[in-house]
């Protein structure tokens, strides 16, 4: 199984809503990542978890709150988002944080109204 | 600063060969990756180079020259399904960073 799954596929939320994005992998990978991708732009790293601990936060606003409940799951909690936060949110995992290739999930298309 | 440059768009003919170039200037270097991304889909891993030279994997090959800060992805026997964006990404090795720095991507259009 070389699959990273993400739910939901699409999400529309208002600026006062609270929602969560979910990511799951069963490859035994111990590094997981959140990326944000705007249209026709490359993915931008948001967070890195290594062995369930947050190791990198790329100065992401606090309205985005990551959580890694266990080695297979990664959540991104969203609160009080802005319309400019609308984007494709990609989850990725790799065997370890470091030189290993990252496997990406299909992404969640988020629209903030 | 960190900078990765790729051509914005390329067009090629089915059955032909195309080379997509990538130049980079980063604080550190711990490997270069190529990813393929179809519109609206997730990037998929194509290749990884950390030493100078050519890595071949089927119809796809990737080359790296660390002294020149240069890589290319070579696609042979092009198929229509190869129409996609190709992302060059460098792993910054400073402080064992896990960060992948992506170029803006090259949109490849394969024509019949």
Task: Give a quick set of tags describing it.
heterodimer, A: 113 residues, mainly beta, 7-stranded mixed sheet, 4-stranded antiparallel sheet, globular, B: 112 residues, 6-stranded mixed sheet, 11 strands, 0% helix
Decide which structural class fits the backbone of chain B.
mainly beta
Mean pLDDT of chain A: 93
Strand content of chain A: over 45%
> Which regions of chain B are unreliable across 5 or more consecutive residues at pLDDT < 50?
none
Number of strands of chain B: 11
Count of helical stretches of chain B: 0
Q: Calculate the mean pLDDT score of chain B and round it.
A: 92
Give the beta-strand count of chain A. 11
Distance between the termini of chain A: 36 Å
Alpha-beta classification of chain A: mainly beta
Q: What is the CA-based Rg of chain B, rounded?
A: 14 Å
Uncertain segments of chain A are: none
C-alpha geometry of chain A: globular
Which H/E pattern describes the elements of chain B? EEEEEEEEEEE
- Which protein chains make the most extensive interface, counting residues with beta carbons within 8 Å of the other chain's beta carbons? A-B, 25 and 24 residues
Structure description:
The complex is a heterodimer of chains A (113) and B (112). Chain A is mainly β and 113 residues long. Chain A is 0% helix and 57% strand. Chain A has no helices and eleven strands. In chain A, strands 2, 4, 5, 6, 9, 10 and 11 form a seven-stranded mixed beta sheet that branches. Helix content of chain B is 0%, strand content 55%. In chain B, strands 2, 4, 5, 9, 10 and 11 form a six-stranded mixed beta sheet that branches. Chain B has 112 residues and is mostly beta strands. Chain B has strands at residues 3-5, 9-13, 18-25, 32-37, 44-49, 53-57, 60-65, 70-75, 84-91, 100-102, 106-111. In chain B, strand 9 and strand 10 (100-102) form a beta hairpin. The chains are: A mainly beta (113), B mainly beta (112). Chains A and B meet through strand 5 and strand 10 of A and strand 5 and strand 9 of B.
């Amino acid at each position: 199984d070389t699959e990273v799954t993400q739910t939901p596929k699409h999400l529309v939320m208002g600026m006062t809503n609270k929602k969560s994005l979910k990511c799951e992998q069963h490859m035994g990978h111990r590094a997981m990542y959140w990326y944000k991708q705007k249209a026709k732009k490359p993915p931008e790293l948001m967070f890195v978890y290594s062995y369930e601990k947050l190791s990198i936060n790329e100065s992401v606003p606090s309205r985005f709150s990551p959580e890694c409940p266990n080695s297979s799951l990664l959540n991104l909690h969203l609160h009080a988002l802005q319309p400019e936060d609308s984007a494709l949110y990609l989850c990725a995992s790799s065997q370890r944080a470091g030189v290993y290739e990252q496997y990406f999930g299909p992404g969640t298309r988020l629209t903030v109204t | 600063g960190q900078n990765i440059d790729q051509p914005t768009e390329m067009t090629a003919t089915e059955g032909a060969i195309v080379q997509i170039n990538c130049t980079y200037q980063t604080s550190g270097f711990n490997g270069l990756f190529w990813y393929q991304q179809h519109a609206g889909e997730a990037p998929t891993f194509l290749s990884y180079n950390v030493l100078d030279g050519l890595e071949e994997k089927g119809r796809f090959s990737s080359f790296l020259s660390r002294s020149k800060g240069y890589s290319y992805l070579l696609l042979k026997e092009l198929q229509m399904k190869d129409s996609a964006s190709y992302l060059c990404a460098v792993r910054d090795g400073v402080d064992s960073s896990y960060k992948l720095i992506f170029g803006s991507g090259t949109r490849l259009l394969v024509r019949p």
